[in-house]
Prior knowledge:
By secondary structure, the chain is of the alpha/beta class. It folds into two domains: 37-62 and 174-364, Rossmann fold; 68-168, Rossmann fold (3-Layer(aba) Sandwich). The protein contains 13 helices and twelve strands. α1 packs antiparallel against α2 (68-81), α3 (98-109) runs parallel beside α4 (124-132) and α10 (278-292) packs across α11.
Amino acid sequence: xxxxxxxxxxxxxxxxxxxxxxxxxxxxxxxxxxxxxxxxxxxxxxxxxxxxxxxxxxxxxxxxxxxxxxxxxxxxxxxxxxxxxxxxxxxxxxxxxxxxxxxxxxxxxxxxxxxxxxxxxxxxxxxxxxxxxxxxxxxxxxxxxxxxxxxxxxxxxxxxxxxxxxxxxxxxxxxxxxxxxxxxxxxxxxxxxxxxxxxxxxxxxxxxxxxxxxxxxxxxxxxxxxxxxxxxxxxxxxxxxxxxxxxxxxxxxxxxxxxxxxxxxxxxxxxxxxxxxxxxxxxxxxxxxxxxxxxxxxxxxxxxxxxxxxxxxxxxxxxxxxxxxxxxxxxxxxxxxxxxxxxxxxxxxxxxxxxxxxxxxxxxxxxxxxxx
Length: 372
């Protein structure tokens, strides 16, 4: 189709009906953000005499129950505004669970079909949540095959593969616009240590650490960023050896840890990394739940273990300040895994030594690493 004597060609994307659908789709996604209040910043109980404050940014209160609600919203807006998604497009995603739950929510909001490609080991609770949101789960035996399988399904359906592992770091406006970093620093503004010494996060896509690390530099804060990584994940080895081709075997801590260093992970914005055994992650999740009265997931346990180690280090050096980490999602999603003693036994995970470390730290402020 052409007009203006052939000097200008008008493509299908300028169709008034398509533009009207796009406008309405963006309005719906933006309306969801306007309806959602900011997430809470809870104070974790530490002795006041330590002079160190620990905060949990509670991302479990999002409409879909996890930190990934922010990412899903950003990914949908990114895909819509890039012209990759239109009316009727099937949305495909490779996900271990929580991202897919949130993306299924937004797909249903836009009346779009949604397929989550996930490892067969994904918790049944997450599968049920995806299906509750109207999504379909496509399970694979080999976790490393989720990328290729997602691309294949997108080709076969004529759909769009959102690809969180590539686009997470670029879909979010890291300079501000109410991203998670800006929210944390705004909420800390009236606390006794308003600029945190450390922010501690896990890495799944790498998008959250990229957003926070960039924001810290952009705002010229002295805050340092620590990324915690569960055992068997590739991120720690890739960061410590400066090797983006590093690989691992995946992770039993859903939502964080990957078999490869994902494209969205930006190692240069990370100041410190801590490798956390799965037993420590699960022990810390259970211990955090008992202390706070809020049931938390395994990735929150990984972050709590790292945050408490940093608090212990600050205390041993006589430093004061604040540390912030995330409550990524609720523990009710893991009733048949991390909170099931039978599952732990089947996996050969002993949390007792790590629980002892946490209890000793709570009693004395001393951090004693469990024997490896």
